[in-house]
TrEMBL record:
Belongs to the iron/ascorbate-dependent oxidoreductase family. Pfam families: 2OG-FeII_Oxy, DIOX_N. Keywords: Dioxygenase, Iron, Metal-binding, Oxidoreductase. InterPro entries: DIOX_N (IPR026992), IPNS-like_FE2OG_OXY (IPR044861), IPNS-like_sf (IPR027443), Oxoglu/Fe-dep_dioxygenase_dom (IPR005123). It comes from Trametes coccinea (strain BRFM310) (Pycnoporus coccineus). The keyword Magnesium does not apply. GO terms for molecular function: dioxygenase activity; metal ion binding. Residues 185-300 form the Fe2OG dioxygenase domain. This is Thymine dioxygenase.
């Protein structure tokens, strides 16, 4: 086992990212290559010593629970707009239905009616954004919540940039190349809560948590509680899913569709979903509730082409240059 590897979880590498943040040039390179290898094999990697302080993670989980414990009518004082292209504010259970590459409105309507995603969410981003302004609760409703979200947003952003620097090192390109495409802060902090629901309804597909999908941005950071339920499609067995269990103190990072395109398909954007936790112990036939949060990003104004080093005469670029906004906005619209 290498000095940066802490093992694996169902084939997903578990790595000590502290080797990149604080290590020698050789250990930085070793970590970067190991991370890229996991992205190439399965599209996911676990990182410990990732730079997000444990107390901030605990604090954000506490704030998330305080928010979702509010009465529905209070949470709806910060409503998510009907448009799927403005991902800010609160969405109630059953409103969203994640789908994969389905854009016909009638098909979307039928699919969403069949088995709604029983989750609720709150989304926020860069406070100064003109294109996607935040939608907060009225002043005085939950004092400190906005400030906690914004503090955590910027902490995650710094970790994002360090992960991108490591990826550049592994690809043999300047370490700031990807960073410069993520300076407009078109990022999203998404708090998620899965209420306790009847186990039978999940097993009989009357309801779902998050259906199988790939992310559409560059990379996603995921912090989950210890309940579990995240599953990743086995790259070697399409349609077969493996558990991505919670690991104490670990950050899960996965590549999105845009990074796969950006890397000329060198990096995988892997289908994943959230189901009932494995080996769960229902109480009176009900699942335990679950909390986690995402932080994911893409620079809407960036126009990108396949990265240097990901193509050659024998493996030419597969994609034409494209703007992130052109690529992403139709995906956003179909995800709500």
């Amino acid at each position: 086992m290498s000095s940066v590897s802490l093992g694996d979880a169902e084939g997903i590498s578990v790595l000590d990212f502290g080797a990149f943040l604080n290590g020698s040039e050789s250990t930085k390179a070793e970590l970067a290559w190991a991370m890229l290898d996991s992205f190439k094999r399965v599209g996911f990697v676990y990182l410990v010593n990732h730079g997000i302080p444990a107390d901030k993670v605990r604090n954000m989980f506490q704030w998330s629970k305080r928010f979702f414990d509010l009465p529905s009518e209070v949470k709806l004082l910060a409503p998510h707009p009907p448009s799927g292209t403005h991902h800010r504010g609160y969405s109630a259970p059953g409103v969203e239905k994640v789908v994969q590459h389905i854009y016909d409105e009638e098909n979307l309507k039928n699919i969403r009616a069949k088995a709604p995603n029983v989750k609720e969410s709150f989304e926020s981003g860069w406070e100064e954004s003109k294109s996607m302004p935040n939608i907060w609760l009225p002043d005085g409703v939950l004092p400190g919540f906005k400030e906690a979200c914004m503090d955590f947003f910027w902490t995650c952003h710094e970790t994002e940039l360090n992960i991108l620097r490591a990826l550049c090192l592994a690809l043999g390109i300047p370490e700031d190349l990807l960073v410069k495409y993520h300076k407009a802060h078109d990022n999203q902090l998404r708090l998620l809560h899965y209420p306790s629901v009847p186990v039978r309804d999940l097993e009989e597909d009357k309801i779902s948590r998050i259906d199988a999908h790939s992310d559409f941005g560059s990379i996603t950071l995921l912090l989950q509680d210890n309940v579990g339920g995240l599953e990743v499609e086995d790259p070697n067995k399409p349609g077969h899913f493996i558990s991505a269990p919670p690991i104490e103190g670990a950050l899960i990072v996965n590549a999105g569709d845009f990074l796969m395109r950006w890397s000329n398909d060198l990096i995988r954007s892997t289908i994943h979903r959230v189901r009932a936790p494995p080996q769960m112990k229902p109480i009176n036939g009900m699942t335990p509730e679950r909390y986690f949060f995402f932080f994911f990003f893409l620079e809407f104004l960036a126009v990108v082409e396949c990265l240097p080093g990901t193509y050659s005469d024998d493996n030419p670029p597969k994609y034409e240059p494209i703007s992130a906004s052109q690529y992403v906005l139709h995906r956003l619209a179909a995800s709500y």
